[in-house]
Amino acid sequence: MVEMNHKQTCTVAVVEDDPNTRARLTEKVDNLADFSVIVSAGSVAEAKDLLRQSPPDVLLIDLGLPDGSGLDVIRQQSDLHPEMPILVISVFGDEKSVIRAIEAGAQGYLLKSDSSLAIEQCLAQLLAGGAPISAAIARHLIRRLRPEPTQAQREAQSLLSDRELEVLQLAAKGYSYQDIAELLQVKVSTVGSYTRRMYQKLSVHSRSEAVFEATRMGLMDRPHKGE
Fold first, then answer.
1. Nearest of 41, 39, 43, 20 to residue 30 by alpha carbon
2. Where is 155: in which H helix or E strand?
3. Is the pLDDT of residue 222 over 90?
4. Model pLDDT, residue 162
């Protein structure tokens, strides 16, 4: 983590192959209080050379460079300066690029199309030890970390119909048959029919047993069509 107070300027390197994009990003950073761009490069070779001469406090880098991948620069700087926060700013949002960048040493990953995070906020997060990440990138990471369901779990997920699951989820929240019927706009007897079929499929005899068994099987986390 880079420590900075108001009497100290945080130095930044910008590695981006498009001159206009690089100029805009450099201007944004230079206009921030306590920040200064000391390295501006448009290729892997140029970045490695300039970073060797003037290591910055923070590195902002694109992945698609004309003479190679920004991953090479990230790996080099992570090895030489493991404390240096590195933020990828790229058009590449595929899972492969994201995972490789993080494995190489990047602390954050922004898509160029993401306007929800201002560069000032991202730099502040980096300096505080955080990891600014675009929402689409976060979804990639969640999918990556989420374990694949087993065959038994997949079979369990399809055990109840969407309407039966909806009835069970509402029952688990404490709603009565009458409440559920009004919410689903069906007859109370229809709710009873769904409940009986659900009990039979789960091999249970009460609401509490149904909720317990469905939770154990991972059914309660399954969204239904109404969600």
1. 39
2. helix 151-157
3. no
4. 87
Q: Cα–Cα distance between 119 and 115 in angstroms, integer?
A: 9
Q: How large a percentage of the chain has pLDDT more than 90?
A: 52
Mean pLDDT, all residues of the chain: 86
Taking the C-alpha atoms of residue 189 and residue 195, their distance in angstroms, rounded to an integer, is 10
Q: Where are the domains of the chain?
A: 10-145, 151-221
- Size of the chain, expressed as the number of residues it contains: 227
Q: Which of 21-30, 54-63, 149-158, 171-180 has the lowest mean pLDDT?
A: 149-158
User: Strands 86-90, 64-65: parallel, antiparallel or unpaired by DSSP?
Assistant: unpaired
Phi-psi region of 134 (alpha: psi -120 to 50; beta: other; left: phi over 0): beta
State whether CATH 3.20.14.10 applies to domain 10-145: no
Return the beta strands (E) in 24-65 as ranges: 35-41, 58-61, 64-65
Locate the DSSP E strands across the chain.
Answer: 10-15, 35-41, 58-61, 64-65, 68-69, 86-90, 108-111
Asked whether the beta carbons of 56 and 30 are under 8 A apart, the reply is no
Would the pTM of this model clear 0.85, i.e. be above it?
no
pLDDT range class, residue 208, cuts 50, 70, 90: confident
- The answer regarding whether domain 151-221 maps to CATH 3.40.50.1820 reads no
Contact 157, 149 (CB under 8 A): yes
